[in-house]
Amino acid sequence: MASTDKEEYVVRKKFALVGLFMQALFILLFGVFTEYRLNEARPVPRNGNTSGSGMANETTNAIDGLYPMFMDVHSMMFLGFGFLMAFLGRYGYSSVGLNFLLGAFVLQWATLVLGLFHQYPDFDSKIQLEIGSLLTADFAAAAVMITFGAVLGKVSALQLLVIALLEIIIFSVNEMIGAKIFKAIDIGGSMWVHTFGAYFGLALSRMLSTRTRLARKTGSPKEGSVYHSDLFAMIGTIILWLYWPSFNGALGVGDQRHRVVINTYYSLSACVVVTFAFSTLLNKDNKLDMVHVQNATLAGGVAVGASADLLIQPWGAMFLGVLSAFISVAGYVYLQPFLQKSFHLHDTCGVHNLHGMPGVLGGLAAVVATAVIDIDQYGATLGIVYPAISDGRSASSQALYQLAALVVTIAMALAGGVITGLIVRHSSFDPVSDTEDEMFDDKVHWEVNAAEIQLSTLSKNSHTEAIVVRSLGQETTTHTVADQVPSPHESAL
Question: Closest Cα partner for 157 from 104, 89, 90?
């Protein structure tokens, strides 16, 4: 066995052993620290009938109300995010597969960590597991998957596990500060999921980047997409777009949830129309760019998240969708190339454009909506939507706490990303070599048929399949694989 092959064998074996160890540890921790919530541990009769247990007229299990939306969110995590990141022509296995691994890993770890912090300030009981635990674990997984998008193709599987372990802890601390201490509201996760995940990922990416061609304007030739990989990514977009009202509204109840669904529905709809318009206007040939359609069309769901349960009215939700579409498309065309060229900030999926800036917009929208709140309009639901105001806090004070939560989220995400990046770039965690041979290529982690790797060869008569390479600016050019023209595909989660 050659030296290089032996080193790769050791790396893959290390990942497998760490994965087995962590799963065994999770089983132990669940055995010690978790239990079913009481009404989740036993069957509950319905319709006033008993089931031989003598229990009549019991309330139904909480799963009845949450499971449909939970499954929508669950599908978004594994189908939506996975396929959205499958645009890379040579990294499809890893985009979908490692997202699958990351999600399954985070769901278990987040259940434990979030369960602990949700007990604040009392930590004297076991973590009570119910359908809500599964749902909040999915939200935490979304933040990690957003971070994954910023470093897609640039980290090893072992690094991903370590990143997830550290990020979930920082994510949970940030959410505790915002929700428990500041008593801020963010039902759709504009701040605590999207903003946090994006800026954590950007800081992490910067720590992992070097001053090679990847960090410079030229990028990597393997960041291109092929025609069919863009179609797969579009499937992810449609799944996310359809289920986003459930993502924003799953934790709501009654009229609150109803408003979330309506506001998200119209924000997303307006966002799609304006994305298509600005994608055409900002392209030098006045043509649509698939990158914008895949990603910026989702920005409306991000931007409306923090204020989705507020009385912002449908026109207000649509206005947020319009603003987020413009910000996202402009980010892909102008801001992302500037950040990469000037600050060596490489963002594989453009998460700053889809999750970062729209998330900040959503946080600020909640600040404004809170400052001008008409308390009387909320009636009996005020305590559900604004617990702190119901307890006596003024609207202006609540608005300041909303702003503080946004600022703290950005600060903790950036600091956490920097610290995590400094840790995982150590050779002990088997970082991917900063070379064209290892980055953005499935063959590093997967058994791939040699014929499948050679994307340029479609048949024995030497026909070539074009790789579409998105430029850092407005241009969209097409080259064959043999051309190896270095220019990254600008896409987002």
Answer: 104
Neighbours of 306 (CB within 10 A): 34
Which has the higher per-residue pLDDT, 63 or 69?
Answer: 69
CB burial class (10 A; 0-12, 13-18, 19+) of residue 264? buried
C-alpha atoms less than 13 angstroms from C-alpha of 303 in its C-beta half-sphere: 33
The C-alpha torsion from 41 through 47 and 53 to 55, rounded to 10°, is 80
Residue 352: partners with Cβ closer than 8 Å, 6 or more residues away: 150, 198, 202, 331, 335, 336, 339, 492
- pLDDT of res. 427: 85
* 193-250 pLDDT per residue, tens: 999 999 999 999 999 986 444 555 556 677 777 888 889 999 999 999 999 999 999 9
Which residue, 249, 239, 275, is CA-closest to 96?
A: 239
- DSSP for residue 38: G
52: three-class secondary structure by DSSP = coil
479 bridge partner residues: 467
CA distances from 488 to 215, 224, 231, 366, 456 (A): 11, 6, 18, 35, 18
Angle at 425 between CA 421 and CA 429, to 5 degrees: 120
C-beta of residue 256 within 8 angstroms of C-beta of residue 384: yes
Q: Which amino acid, residue 405?
A: A
Helices 227-249, 63-75: inter-axial angle, 10-degree rounding: 160
The answer to whether the beta carbons of residues 332 and 288 sit under 8 Å apart is no
Compute the Cα dihedral for 122, 125, 129, 130 and give only its sign.
negative
State residue 392 phi and psi, 5-degree precision: 120, -5
Number of other CB atoms surrounding residue 462 within 10 Å? 8
| Mean pLDDT, range 391-409, rounded to an integer | 96
Q: Which amino acid is at 290?
A: M
Q: What share of the chain is helix, strand, coil (3-state, %, to 5)?
A: 65, 5, 30
Lookup result for tokens 């058994």? 447
Q: Report which of residues 322 and 212 the model is more confident about.
A: 322
What mean pLDDT value characterizes the chain?
A: 84
- Check whether 493 has a pLDDT greater than 50: no
Residue 337's nearest CA partner among 350, 322, 319, 324 is 350
> Cβ neighbours of residue 412 under 8 Å, at least 6 residues apart?
170, 173, 174, 177, 196
State the Cα–Cα distance between residues 47 and 469, nearest whole angstrom: 60
List, as one string, the DSSP characters of 155-200.
S-HHHHHHHHHHHHHHHHHHHIIIIIIS----TT-IIIIIIHHHHH
Strands 225-226 and 466-470: antiparallel
Q: How far apart are CA 412 and CA 405, in angstroms?
A: 10
